[in-house]
Amino acid sequence: MRIGYLLRRVAMLAVTLLVASFAIFTATYLAPGNPLAALSGGKSLSPEAQAALEQRYHLDEPFLAQYGHWLAGALRGDLGVSIPLHEDVSSLIADRALITLTLVLYAALLIVVIGIGLGLLAGLRPGWIDSSVLVVSSMAAAVPAFVAAIVLTAVFAVSLGWFPTIGAGEGFVGRLEHLTLPAVALALSSVAVVARVTRTAIREEVAREHVQTAISRGIPQHLVVTRHVLRNAAIPITTVTGVTVASLIALSSVVETSFGLNGLGQYLVKSAQSKDIAVVQGISLVLVVAFVLVNVVVDALYAVLDPRVQLGARAA
Amino acid sequence: MTRNNLVRAGALLLACSVAAVGCGRSADDPSTSRTAGDLRPTTAAATKDADAITWAVYRDVQTIDPLYVFDYPDNTALTLFCESLLRTQPDGTIADGIASLSRTDPTTVVLDVNADATFWDGSPVTADDVVYSLERQRDPELGGFYGQAFSRVDTIEATGDRQVTLTLKQADYWLDGELASVPGIVVQKKYVEAKGADYGTPSGGVMCSGAYRFDSWSPASGVVAVPNDDYWGEADARVAKITVKGVVDEAALTSALIAGEIGGTYPPAISTLPVLEDNDAVTVTQGPGYATAALVISNLKGTLGDVKVRQALSLALDRDGIVENVYHGAATDARWLANPGTFASARETYQAAYDDSPALEQDLDRAKALVEEAGAKGRTITIGMSSAIPDIAYTAGAFRTAAEKIGLEVEFESVSADAFINFFIDPKAREGVDAFPTVTYGDYADPAALSATVVLPDGAQNYSGFDDPEVTRLMEEARGTEDAEARAELVIEAQQRTMELLPWIPTAQPNAVVVTGKDLTGAVSSFAYMSAPWAEHLGAR
Question: Which residue of B has its CA nearest to A168?
Answer without folding.
Answer: B221
